[in-house]
Amino acid sequence: MLAPQQAQAAQRRKKGWYHDLRLRLMKLLNVFLIALPFVGCWLLYYSRRILLLPSPWRSAGILFLFVLLYFYFGRVYDAFLLSLKRISELFYSQALSVFMADAFMLLTLWIVSGRFPYLPPALAALAGQLALSLLWCKRAHIW
Q1: Arithmetic mean of pLDDT, 11-16
Q2: Distance from the CA of 94 to the CA of which of 8, 17, 37, 66 falls in 20 to 30 A?
Q3: How far, in Å, CA of 11 to CA of 117, rounded?
Q4: pLDDT over 70 (residue 8)
Q5: How does residue 45 score in pLDDT terms, banded at 50, 70 and 90?
Q6: Contact 49, 110 (CB under 8 A)
Q7: Other Cβ atoms within 10 Å of 19 Cβ, number
């Protein structure tokens, strides 16, 4: 039989494991939600306007590059620190990460298409990304 202190410690470890898993899933949900508008923008508009013929592998590479850039800039700007930041700070960090990832992707699209990309689809994706980021920040902070 465990002493009461040992039982409490064991219970905290179980809750800690479950909490860590849920926290990781919330962070993955954030990356998915931020990538969703860019995926729509790429597949519906930009993939047809590049110099090379569209291919599923090229599209997967572009989308993977966006996710990688967003994750990298999210780590640089601390966009995933749920327990340490207020909603406004979390949203600001994510907005910076989204701006940087989108800026790098516009440069990539400029190189791939041979001319400066048409901005309204990218701005619509940016608005969607910021709206989803704000919703996620509010929901994640309540959680």
Answers
A1: 63
A2: 17
A3: 55
A4: no
A5: very high
A6: no
A7: 12
